[in-house]
Amino acid sequence: LGWKFYDADDYHSPENKKKMAEGIPLNDEDRIPWLCALHDILRREDSSRENAVLACSALKKMYRHVLVSGAAAIESNQPEQPGKNAPLKILFVHLDGPIDVIAGRLAKRRGHFMPPELLKSQFDTLEPPSAPEHFITVSLEKSLPEIVLEIEHAIFQG
């Protein structure tokens, strides 16, 4: 696509990385500042009229809402500023697959702070996207070229 790519894992705080490395799942309190920082990155790209891809485990509907709307998604008493707080237009790609397929891929990953043992906690937390969220679901059991084509089609064909 020629778009900037961001891996959300690169933006976790040292405390979050340490917690996960110790096998402790993150909670909402851990994730919200991280998601707000990711929203700020996406907002900056949008303000520059740039497209970007963000790889992120936005497991809950609320997390995806923070990516779209930033801190305003959780701070209901924050005054609206016309134009500035307009929600971002984000297509969420829910890569869906059986836990054993994902576990097999995690087992091959080296040097990452999140141990494979935390995968179950992510499945337990997962709230798959649903209407009215702007999303597509793509099976991880497809080949990589098929996955990429399906995502590209959704982006460019609407």
From TrEMBL:
The keyword Ion transport does not apply. One of its GO terms (molecular function) is ATP binding. It comes from Pelecanoides urinatrix. GO terms for cellular component: cytoplasm. The gene is Idnk. Keywords: ATP-binding, Kinase, Nucleotide-binding, Transferase. Pathway: Carbohydrate acid metabolism; D-gluconate degradation. Coiled coil: none annotated. It catalyses: D-gluconate + ATP = 6-phospho-D-gluconate + ADP + H(+). It is an enzyme of class 2 (transferase). InterPro entries: P-loop_NTPase, Therm_gnt_kin. Its EC number is 2.7.1.12. One of its GO terms (biological process) is carbohydrate metabolic process. This is Gluconokinase. The keyword Oxidoreductase does not apply. Belongs to the gluconokinase GntK/GntV family.
